Every structure is written in structure tokens, then in C-alpha cells.
Amino acid sequence: MASFIVEGNNLLRGTIEVSGSKNAALSALAAGILFKTFPEYFRVPDIEDIRRMRELIDVFLEHKTINTEIAKRFRASILLAGPILARLGAVSFPHPGGCLIGARPIDVFLEGWRMMGAYISEDKDGYHLEISKQTSLRGIDYTFRVKSVTGTESLMMTAVLAHGITTLHNSACEPEIKSLADFLNANGAVVCGAGTPDIVVKGNGGALLDFHKPFVSPPDRIETGSLAILGSLAADELRITQCNPAELEAPLQALNNAGASIEVGDNWIIVKKSDCFFPVDIETREYPGFPTDLQAPFMVFLTQAGGTSIVRENIFEGRMTHVPSLNAMGARISLKGNHRAVIEGKTPLVGCAMESPDIRAGLAFIIAASIANGTSRIGNAYQIDRGYVALDKRLSEIGMHIFRAD
Ligand code: EPU
């Protein structure tokens, strides 16, 4: 399996352009199922997760089914279920399952679809949903038990083709939801309030959408934040362009509180390394709170702050898997249960061999390896390729000594 090799002690410099958002593109691609003819997409990142989603959509457009083998390896495949249910009145899909970062149940999706009129059965192959001819798909007034990003996107997409009004309370407010709603609205749907906890969708009674305006993926906010962390640790000067800093208020504030040197413009960020950082405590929250997807990279940053910092992970129960490898590199991080880590800094890091457990922890390891003494091998590069475009090439261009090895 491919690995990334990083020779440490890098001094980075230059300009790096942020790619289009993975998670915004994933839901917008799934929304393509709601259209008469499949829409056009721009700035969609060329990465593994997007290729899997496109494969699933191609299979669906030809065979009208979700390919189980691809879908069960890939959590975001759940995003196709709502649009297919709305389009065909029936859908079957495998349980997307848990993964390393947590159990990741789908109870809120199922509850919403049931209320919309779906009869749901479950067997060893997964879930089977069907709307009876008599009832048809209907709008609902629904309050999410937990704020769920893909849950909100799924019910919002399903509601577009339903009969009547759907009101979703306690919806997730992540920018990807607003971007999905903007795309749907630009093509004839009526979705109000996306980006706030209360979303209202005026269902059109089942008419597939006419394609008018392509989807343009907004900048990936998680990649942007990760690059800001990397630059704060390792760059003489790093200019991050084609980004939207307004979506990163909490993480940029945390970097500022730690004493990082950051200059922010409308669509760019300039970061410079400092040798002295203060410890800060963070806890992950739904947007606009500190994103769980930046927790691992930020923990790497905190290993370089002088003093004790605390990180609390509130979204997922399995998102501390990076800690043992960071400790093997010389960090002093103690885990207090599944949700809390105490970081004692500042500790020099040394190169190590490690395996990337998930997309975001993988990039955190690359950041750690870049400031470490010696060489690191980060295995399971597939996990990193799932989320970032040509990372080795782009990071090499700003001075990182990073190579891909088979
Ligand atoms: N939850 C439930 N029941 C549900 C749905 C969610 O209990 O039916 C819980 C989850 O277990 C979790 C919390 O609600 O504790 C929030 O999970 P959410 O549903 O919001 O996560 P998601 O929609 O599956 C998306 C992103 C993740 C990101 C999270 C949180 C996509 C494709 N994925 O996941 O991104 O971490 O929101 O912001 O948009 C990544 O890109 O690496 C990634 C994991």
C-alpha cells in the first residue's frame, strides 16, 4: 500500500491555492439525481471520495441501483439515498456502518424518511425504503435529535421533490448546507434558511429539476485551516489563496490566541512561523464552532505550544486515534477517555513510521512529520488521497520534502 515519506525540518515558503470543498461537492453530486439531466460541476476536487461518488452515480444512472460494494466502503454514499427515494419512490442501500472516527448511526435520516411516508425494512443487505403509491412523499415538520450535516442535507434534498412544505428544526449550519441549498435554488428548488437551524423547503410534488446553473465547489475550509496550521508551524511565509477565511473564525481565533502570526484578507491568508506559542484549550463543536475535522491538525500545533493545552472532541467518540503515533514522535499527550486529551508542550518531534487512520489525522501526521527531526513514513496514503488533491505535488511546491512510495 502506498505511503508518504516526509523528510523533516522543512522551511516552507510560497503560495498554495486551496482546492474545491470535498464535502460540499459530495452532497451537490448526490443532488444531481434530482435533475432531469445530470448537471455540470466545476472546481470539484479530483480525489478518491469524489471518484467513488461519481462511480456510484454512474451505476445508478444506468441500473437504477446503489452498488453495495462501493457504497459500504464509503460513508458519504448515504447522501444518494434521499435523492433516489425522492426520484424513484424506493431505494435500497447497505448500512454505511461505523468507521474509525465513531459509530456514525443514521437514525435521524431514517426517522425523517419514515415521517415523509417511507416504509422501511432492514435485512442483512441493508435498508430498503419504499413510498406507497397511495401516500406519496410528503413534507414534514421535523426536529433533529442531533445536528447532523449529511442528515440535514439528505432530508433537505428529499424534501425538494416531496408534496408540501418541509420544516427542519435543529438543522446543522455548516457552510456546505448553504452551498447545497444555493445550488438547488439556482435550479428551481425553493429552500429557505439553509445555514441556520431552521430550514424550510417548498416541495414541488415530484417534478425533476431542470438544469440551469452549474455547481461551483466553494473552497475547502478544512484544507484551508490545515494549511494555516502547517504554515504557522513551518513557513517562512505561506500565502494561502482561493479560500474563504470567514468560514474559519473559530480555528483562526484559536491560532491567534496561541500567538500565531496570521494576516487575513477576503480570500487569502498569510501565515508565518513563530518559535513561541501559548497553550490554548479547544473543544470541537458544530459550525460555527471549532470543526472536528481540524482537531487532529490542531493537536499537532499544540505540541509546539509551551505549557498545557486541553482538546475536547465533542462530535465523534473515536477521533483521538492519532494520539499514540504523535506520542511515538515525542509528543506528550495523555488521553482522558475517548473525548479529552491533555497536551504538554513544547516537545520536539522525531520522524517515525505510522499509519494514517483517517483523512484528517493523515494530514495531521504530514504536518507533524514536516516539523520533526528525521524522516517519517506515513502509511495508508489512500486515506489521505480520499480528501486532498495531489498533496505531495502541492506541498513539494511550497518546499516540503514529501514523496510518495509504494
Ligand atoms: N449522528 C447521530 N445520528 C444520525 C446522524 C448523526 O447520532 O442519524 C451523530 C453522529 O454520530 C455524530 C454527530 O451526530 O456524533 C454529528 O455527525 P454528522 O451526521 O454531522 O456527521 P456526517 O454528516 O456523517 C459530516 C462530514 C464529516 C464531518 C462531520 C462533522 C461529509 C460527507 N462528512 O459527516 O467529514 O466530520 O460532518 O462536521 O460531509 C471528513 O471530511 O473527513 C469527515 C469525516
Explain this structure.
With 406 residues, this protein is of the alpha/beta class. It folds into two domains: 3-19 and 220-405, UDP-n-acetylglucosamine1-carboxyvinyl-transferase, Chain, CATH 3.65.10; 22-216, UDP-n-acetylglucosamine1-carboxyvinyl-transferase, Chain. The chain is built from 14 helices and 21 strands. It has helices at 22-31, 48-63, 68-72, 81-88, 107-115, 149-160, 175-186, 221-234, 249-257, 295-302, 323-328, 359-371, 381-385, 391-397; strands at residues 3-7, 12-17, 41-42, 90-93, 118-123, 126-131, 141-143, 165-169, 190-192, 199-202, 215-216, 235-241, 261-264, 268-272, 282-283, 307-312, 332-336, 340-345, 353-355, 375-379, 401-405. The termini are close together. It binds uridine-diphosphate-2(N-acetylglucosaminyl) butyric acid. Uridine-diphosphate-2(N-acetylglucosaminyl) butyric acid binds at residues 23, 26, 76, 102, 104-109, 146, 148-151, 172, 292-293, 315-316, 359-360, 387.
Task: Give descriptors for this structure.
406 residues, alpha/beta, UDP-n-acetylglucosamine1-carboxyvinyl-transferase, Chain, four-stranded mixed sheet, 14 helices, binds uridine-diphosphate-2(N-acetylglucosaminyl) butyric acid
The number of distinct helices, counting runs of at least 4 residues, comes to: 14
Sheet with the most strands? 4 strands, mixed
Radius of gyration based on Cα positions? 22 Å
Distance between the termini: 6 Å
Number of strands: 21
Bound small molecules, which ones?
uridine-diphosphate-2(N-acetylglucosaminyl) butyric acid
Can you identify the CATH class of the largest domain? Alpha Beta
CATH superfamily of the largest domain: Enolpyruvate transferase domain
Instruction: Give me the secondary-structure category.
Output: alpha/beta
| Percent helix range | 25-40%
Strand order of the largest sheet: 19-20-1-21
- Overall domain count: 2
| Percent of residues in β-strands | 15-25%
Q: Please state the average pLDDT score.
A: 96
Q: Indicate the low-confidence ranges by residue numbers.
A: none
